[in-house]
């Protein structure tokens, strides 16, 4: 299963787990699996339409991708806040 | 002990005190996030906060304990999956007139309803369809449903205010909606468009619980009163230094009373003449009296946001508090006759509610 790395505050919302393995064939699938495993992450990375939020970056093996990108069982996902966010 | 919940662009501040000049900051929570609005439901004691992360989006949080303690995240509000719309900002959370009933007004302009005390939220589909059919236009702050006015004792009757799509009224619990446009004069539109446009920029609206058919409204140029539950409106701004502004409060015990804090105008959103003044009417808008004793009256070019004016109680001892984008919080414990500075150097204040 793909390996997912989270940082604060998402790590805290995932029960303190900064490193997880979650099932899914796309980035969106994996992030929905995160929400199912840790409901307090619902709405934080994906909006209600399943899109990665504008100021969150998801990388697969170092390449920035969107929710529809495919992932394999050996891939590594990093979920990070964007440097463009937080301007308010 | 009075508790004041102050939403800011950098978290929620909780202030407590029991007399003028003796309020202090008890603490700050949601550090770094915008707290658009925070209020305590007087029926249950549950406290709600609308929190928007610059990264992770908006959400409703709630707690039954100390607001400086642990909070829980509500399920919603969120638009139904399968569309292309997502909640951008949660402007307002308002208790309804039935057990467990609450409303949330959000951007893009829509109304969400909770029937379980604010733990889960569902879209009011009927008003959303009106929005889609009417091609509503956003104001400068986005397309926002920010004012929610229940009818005391009747959960079927509700009026809401939208920037910039006017007043919407339901009398069947939100199954159907009609407009309350008559009398509102959008001077920002070409003359030939003023009678027909739906681009009506409501800035704030409050209902008098003592006479529920009466509503007061701060408009984008105009202060109005309705005596027929929002169907028609009469301009009552004569006597104010400016008819532009956002904050609005009422005295729940006096249907003829309202308070506004005027700003110069749309292009200069500061206190007129550098004098910070709250204006009070006690005759339903026939006349206005400046209430400025204790407020800065020189070089005070402050900006007060829409929801940054809150109150508790009624009559001569009504408590009024408002906050500025420059971080000051002002309070009055005698219905505006005298004011004191409750806090300085907060972050820009987005909302003030007196718990």
Overview of this protein structure:
The complex is a heterodimer of chains A (88) and B (355). A five-stranded mixed β-sheet of chain A has the order 2-1-5-3-4, with no helix packed on it. Chain A is 17% helix and 24% strand. Chain A has two helices and five strands. Chain A has a single domain, classed as Beta-grasp domain (Ubiquitin-like (UB roll)). The radius of gyration of chain A is 12 Å and the shape is globular. Chain A has helices at 10-13, 27-37, and strands spanning 3-6, 19-21, 56-60, 63-65, 76-81. Chain A is an alpha+beta fold and 88 residues long. The model of chain A has no long low-confidence stretch (mean pLDDT 94). Chain B has 355 residues and is an all-beta fold. Chain B has a single domain (2-354), classed as YVTN repeat-like/Quinoprotein amine dehydrogenase (Methylamine Dehydrogenase, Chain H, 7 Propeller), CATH 2.130.10.10. Chain B contains one helix and 28 strands. Chain B has one helix at residues 125-134; strands spanning 2-8, 11-17, 24-29, 34-40, 47-53, 57-63, 72-73, 89-95, 102-107, 110-114, 122-123, 144-151, 154-163, 166-170, 178-179, 202-207, 215-219, 223-226, 234-235, 244-251, 254-263, 278-281, 289-291, 309-312, 319-323, 329-332, 340-343, 349-354. In chain B, strands 3-2-1-28 form a four-stranded antiparallel β-sheet, with no helix packed on it. Chain B has a four-stranded antiparallel β-sheet with strand order 4-5-6-7, with no helix packed on it. Chain B is globular. The mean pLDDT of chain B is 96. At the A-B interface, loops of A face loops of B.
